[in-house]
Hints:
Layout: E1 2-5, H1 16-30, E2 35-38, H2 48-56, E3 59-66, E4 72-79, E5 85-89, H3 90-94, H4 112-123, E6 128-132
Parallel strand pairs: 1-2, 5-6
Antiparallel strand pairs: 3-4, 4-5
Amino acid sequence: MKILVAPQEFKGSISALSAAEAGKTGILRVFPQAEVVLCPVADGGDGTLETLVEVSGGEVRTCSVQNPIGETIQAQWGAMGDGVTAVIEMARTSGLALLSLAERDPLNASTYGLGQAISEALDEGFRKFIVGI
């Protein structure tokens, strides 16, 4: 029997890869002869960076960028294990969660920080990009 385990992260508690591994452990307890294939997934939103970095053997990095209202923040981006692909979630540089309700003004907000994160990755030699929007 071949079983595919393809979970997304459980927000705030467990990564997609950890969920897949836990599923595999449970399946093998019941079906010890099963071939279990792990395929952690992400939908392009929260968790995409961690999932892609984790399954590729990469690492999460941090850079200084401007949030949507021009304040300097620390944003994470991912260096995938292939050494040429960077993963950037726009929410980490320009997302609504970075602002209070009073600060949310779409006519004056900017995604400049996303470009700064891309520039940082380019400076570090990355030439392929996955951007979660």
